[in-house]
Amino acid sequence: MLLPIFVDLHDNNHNWIIFLYSCAITTMLATLILLATSGATCRFSARLGFMLTVCLWLTGSVVGALPLYLSPLPISLAGAIFESVSGITTTGSTVLTGLDNLSRSILLWRSLICWIGGIGFIGLALLLLPSLRVGGVRLFHMESSDKSEKILPRINQIANGIIIAYVGLTLACMLSYFASGMSLFDAINHAMSTVATAGFSTHDASFGYFSGKPAILIVSTIFMLLSALPFVLYVKLVLPGHSKRFIDPQVIVFLNIVFFFSFALAAWLRLHDHRTFHWIFLDVIFHLSSIISTTGYSAEDYQLWGPFALGIFFIISFTGGCAGSTSGGMKINRLIILWRITQTNIAKLLSPNVIIKTHYDHSNISSDVAKAVLFFVCLYMFCLVIGTALLLTTGLDFTSAFTGVLTALSNIGPGFGDIIGPAGNFSTINDNALWILSFLMLAGRLEIITIFVLFIPAFWREQF
């Protein structure tokens, strides 16, 4: 919170006292927790791992909400929590309006929340949770299902390498934005938001504010796609003998999806648009990259592109980026495994006596992994249905309710429709709906099962 304080002091803005109060409250609570737990010993268990993960994200959400709630902004407690959860889960949905006139400290705080949330999404799973087996994976157990190999001898070395890659990508993105025509402040904020695939902007119009500067859209597209790739691959790239393993199946499939749909949609729009193809293609690939990477930027209302475009955006809202990145969604590797399972089962129907093994990246897919992927997809769909039903009870229309749940679970940002679409925001959503969406954003960020396991009675039994 010191950075926003310095910004307020530089701008001669009295909001610095809000961040000082928030910092004091946070420090006091942290000190009390440390004093209460000093000298205590406990055996690390699966139960403790699940609880610690959820508690860390809940605590981060509350800390992030403090300056927003204490500020002069016309925001309720539900709105402040929603904004903070949206940032720390790198969703990027917002209840704030008039961003162009907000104090720079508040804008910077929002960007810092999502940037910290992005690295926390990767780092927490690497450092804390390698002993927990959620989704049948070994590296990103709690928060992704990336079956990456161990490329360094110690897990903390992998984490350090990924942190360096994360910071380096942020700096490169910031410099590229600045060189493309953004102000330094905008470049810093949008770089943090882009690499975290969060989508928070310093302007109400998002990237529409930079209309007429195609270089900014190009830079954003490149870094959104880079941030949706597994960060462990950047560590591989600089290690001797590992650069040849830089590309894995999910990266190939992810990029193929982006470029296939971009060319298809651009070609379709060219039939109705007087602009040249390359300008149309730039608009299309920017927005498709924004949604599939779950960043959520928009330069215009792509809902006006027609039903074919809406269908494509709806489909890729489910996919998300690669496992091991900051992206949300179902993740590309899960979809690949799901497709391979489908192929295997169809083949077994045609040849029931033939033994067929399911492969992913030259490795057999175990029954545990297959069941975990199927369970996740079923749980995702269950949350989508139940969440939509709950939001409908708050008075939302079906489009806003359904796509609101979809964007929360996939951590995308904008939904569809006039209210929460790319040209709108969540400022008119009632508090009850905001609480539901905040829960769903946390559930989506923590791979759903991490949250829902806490509601299983067996979890609290002594023998768990």
From TrEMBL:
Chain residues that bind K(+): 90-91, 294-295, 411
Alphabetical UniProt keywords: Cell inner membrane, Cell membrane, Ion transport, Membrane, Metal-binding, Potassium, Potassium transport, Transmembrane, Transmembrane helix, Transport
GO cellular component: plasma membrane
Broad class of the protein's primary localization: membrane
Keyword Zinc-finger: no
Domain of life: Bacteria
Pfam families: TrkH
Places the protein is found: Cell inner membrane; Cell membrane
Transmembrane segments: 16-36, 48-70, 107-129, 158-179, 215-239, 251-271, 304-326, 372-392, 434-460
Matches recorded under InterPro entries: Cat_transpt (IPR003445), TrkH (IPR004772)
GO molecular function: metal ion binding; potassium:chloride symporter activity
Membrane association type: Multi-pass membrane protein
Function, in words: Low-affinity potassium transport system. Interacts with Trk system potassium uptake protein TrkA.
UniProt family annotation: Belongs to the TrkH potassium transport family.
Name under which the protein is recorded: Trk system potassium uptake protein
The organism's taxonomic lineage, starting at the top: Bacteria, Pseudomonadati, Pseudomonadota, Alphaproteobacteria, Hyphomicrobiales
